[in-house]
Amino acid sequence: MVMIVILTALDLEYQAVRGHLTDPRVHRHAAGTLFELGRLAGDGHRVALGLVGKGNHPAAVITERAIAEFSPTALLFVGVAGALWPGIGLGDVVVATHVYAYHGGTSQDDGLKARPRVWEVTHETDQLARHLCRTQSWTRHLPVDAAVPVVRFGPIAAGEVVQDSAISAHAQWVRRTYNDALAIEMESAGVAQAAHHNRSLPMAVVRGISDRADGTKTVTDGLNWQPKAAASAAAFAAALAQELAVEHEHHPGREARDMSQSVRNVARDNARVGVQAGHIQGDVVIGHPPLGRTADPAAQLAELRDRLVRARQAQEVDEDTFTAAEEEIAVAAESLAESTQRGRSKAMIALRKLRGLLAEVAELAAHVSAVIAAVRGVL
């Protein structure tokens, strides 16, 4: 089922998006983060709305949490930003073509040299956003009697400071080094990175211009530009979320298409084709277990503990991961020793956590999967 995640950094941005949802209800993440689940007014597509707070680092954490919790079809980050150039008007909407994490750099005797990270918005998302802009169909989501803002497409710079000067060394460096960026803010780099690490999840950043990042922020805030800009960004985002949902329903993504494709291997000379498969989800065991590998979960856990120790000695696993992994192995072993359904269920939970901890060490993660398969065999 289609699910769109929309995230904001400020409460007023959150409220602007929430106004486009019907029947929102609270969804509590296990770690305490509160999301609201609702449906887009007009078409009923499902949306999970969340607040990430200020800064790229918390934004990345909450975005990752939202992706893991909801497995969304697409992700939107919506809110306000400061304009970097005089020609960009207050209330304009900026849709990111790519996002700069501009604080990466190296400090040398002759100045700070930029070493940014950049995330580009997917082609399909960019095309849908531009189509909305051309047709002006998104404007039906604007508040009644609101002026129709200009929609601009270009880079957005995301750092860790509130920029409110046109003449400070930081401001001059940003404008000189990232002179194609249209707007500046503090969160979208974290959101973009989280989306990138989740198989390049379709992601859009939509920002309403609430100030000029030039020392006049107090004045523009006093003139109520933040809620005006947030409302415009939320209106465009609501329309884009609808388009992304419809696109997913009518034109499944590459992954879905690939899963339906056949796979044919041709063996030549002395080679033989053993297995032909497309995409496989879950644990797969082919033939007999390797020599030295028993199907007894307790014995496999003992072997895993030994391999974990060797991995730490080889510096394949850091100390914190090693300690956390040992704790989960101990929980799994103790739970299995109970020889009860409840104990085996507890062991499975610990093993799933363990697989997540060791995901970056393929050999260990595969061993954990084998233990999980063995435990399933005795459930």
Describe the overall structure.
- With about 375 residues, this protein is an alpha/beta fold.
- It folds into 2 domains: about 5-250, Rossmann fold; about 295-379.
- It has helices at about 10-20, 55-70, 125-135, 170-175, 190-195, 215-220, 225-250, 255-260, 295-315, 320-335, 340-355, 360-379, and strands at about 5-10, 20-30, 35-40, 45-50, 75-85, 95-100, 105-110, 110-115, 115-120, 150-160, 185, 205-210.
- It has a 5-stranded mixed barrel with strand order 5-11-10-6-12, surrounded by 4 helices. It has a two-stranded antiparallel ribbon with strand order 7-8.
- Helix 4 links the parallel strand 10 (about 150-160) and strand 11.
- Helix 3 crosses helix 7 (about 225-250).
- The model is unreliable at about 255-265 and about 285-295 (pLDDT under 50).
- Large-scale geometry: globular
Number of DSSP strand runs: 12
Largest sheet: 5 strands, mixed, barrel
Q: Mind telling me the CATH class of the largest domain?
A: Alpha Beta
* Percentage of β-strand residues: 15-25%
In round numbers, the mean pLDDT is 86
- Count helical runs: 12
CATH topology of the largest domain: Rossmann fold
What's the architecture of the largest domain in CATH terms?
3-Layer(aba) Sandwich
Relevant CATH superfamily of the largest domain: Nucleoside phosphorylase domain
Structural class determined from secondary elements: alpha/beta
Write the H/E string, N to C.
Answer: EHEEEHEEEEEHEHEHEHHHHHHH
Runs in which pLDDT lies below 50 for 5 or more consecutive residues are 254-263, 285-294
